[in-house]
Amino acid sequence: KKNALSLYNAIRGTEYTDENEIEVITLKDVIFIGYHNDVSLFFDSRITLWEHQSSVNRNMPLRGLIHYVQCVDGYLEKRNLKKKIYRKAIVKIPAPDYYVLYNGTEEAPDRQEMHLSDAFMTPSIGYEWTAKLVNINAGRNSNLMDACESLKGYSKLVEYMRENIDNGLAEEDAADEAIERCINEGLLKEYLLQKRGEAKLMLLHFDEADLEKSLEEEREEGREEGREEGREEGREEGQDILADTIDRVKNGATRDELIADGLSEKTVELAFKYA
Question: Of these four, 144, 159, 168, 255, which has the most CB atoms within 10 Å of its CB?
Answer without folding.
Answer: 144
